[in-house]
Design goal:
This protein is an alpha+beta fold. The protein contains seven helices and twelve strands. Helix 1 packs across helix 2.
């Protein structure tokens, strides 16, 4: 099973199955959708009915909109409460990518849903604007720490790997004295976590840039990895986008 973001606030969930099971699953959805559409009182298309039925049967809900599992959404307080200059700051849904602030607010406040909504506050460092958390001396990462890594890293931290996070990994191995702390932790997919155990692989946190991990491969190449910027992170002036530069120009002309 895998999940990947898709354009227009969509997501693609796929499964690799034996041919008989895969064909049977699709045929069951298609048959049910054909029956529903064939009655004549259905406004949805056959494809829409199949997609809704897929969610309903997979989650056990009567309606596709009532999903009884945790869906992690990272949004700034200004975007959630529609206040300040960050009211339109896009949010990030784990597993689906960046989504508009308006859609994120509807997901949180939609009164038609029957599932609960729980808010958990995350704090950013005042200088680096990266998500920060407390340390612990325990050998294994706690459930909250694992949840934090999922929210902070979003996908596997190995450069150019966008696979879902499966392991909470010690950057510097615990066997070598690496502490069990968020500063020495990263989210990795299963394959990347196993690969870094091979000879001549090395990873260590960058002391000059909190949150950054430096990976050295057996070929001697060095790669840097940082967690994605959370919503609301200021854009440095030297990295200003054309839209930001235009907005600054318009503001200056208006003044």
């Amino acid at each position: 099973m895998s999940i990947r973001p898709a354009p227009d606030c969509m997501v693609r969930v796929s499964a690799l199955l034996p041919v008989s099971q895969g064909v049977a699953s699709y045929a069951a959805l298609h048959s049910h959708a054909s029956t529903v559409v064939g009655v004549g009182a259905e406004a949805r298309s056959r494809g829409q009915v199949m997609a809704d039925t897929f969610v309903e049967r997979l989650t056990g809900q009567a309606r596709a909109v009532d999903v009884p599992v945790a869906v992690n959404l990272i949004i700034t307080d200004q975007a959630l409460l529609i206040s300040g200059d960050g009211a339109d700051e896009p949010a990030h849904q784990i597993g689906a990518g960046t989504i508009p602030a308006g859609l994120a607010r509807r997901m949180v406040t939609d009164p038609s849903g029957e599932t609960g909504v729980f808010l958990r506050r995350l704090y950013t460092h005042p200088d680096t604007h990266q998500l920060a958390a407390l340390e612990t001396q325990s050998r294994l990462f706690t459930a909250n720490q694992r949840q934090f890594l999922l929210l902070r890293d979003q996908t596997c931290r190995t450069p150019w790997c966008d696979a879902p996070i499966r392991h909470a990994d010690h950057i510097q191995p615990a066997a070598d004295g690496g502490p069990t702390s968020i500063n020495n932790a990263q989210g990795l997919c299963e394959a990347c976590n196993h690969a870094k155990q091979a000879p001549d692989w090395d990873q260590h946190p960058n002391p000059n840039h909190p949150g950054e991990v430096i990976t050295t491969t057996p070929t001697g190449h060095h790669y840097r990895s940082q967690p994605p910027d959370p919503p609301g992170t200021p854009i440095p002036e030297h990295q200003a986008t054309p839209e930001r530069q235009l907005a600054q120009l318009i503001h200056a002309l208006a003044a």
